[in-house]
Amino acid sequence: xxxxxxxxxxxxxxxxxxxxxxxxxxxxxxxxxxxxxxxxxxxxxxxxxxxxxxxxxxxxxxxxxxxxxxxxxxxxxxxxxxxxxxxxxxxxxxxxxxxxxxxxxxxxxxxxxxxxxxxxxxxxx
Length: 125
Hints:
The protein is mostly helical. It has helices spanning 9-15, 26-29, 38-53, 72-77, 91-100, 111-124; strands at residues 59-60, 63-67.
């Protein structure tokens, strides 16, 4: 997975297309916004989702070859997200993942808060 905050915004605009599509944020895939460090928060949420659910983001639970939507781009334009109603993901972790997936990058958690929240959730298990 590409860590986008290693580039300046100008460099990032030249690098679009880098990264792994299922983990990329709306601003990266839809090319319609400024890109900053919050793309990493989105990707972190996608990574947590896969780690706890065992499902690649945007795939149908129980059928990993089938996409949840016709395309990730279509889903993002319609403001949809991967399925979070999975029993292996605690309520607190679901809330944190959902906060990582906020439509507006400025509304996403800071990465350090994500890591602390994740550590706290794992201690409660």
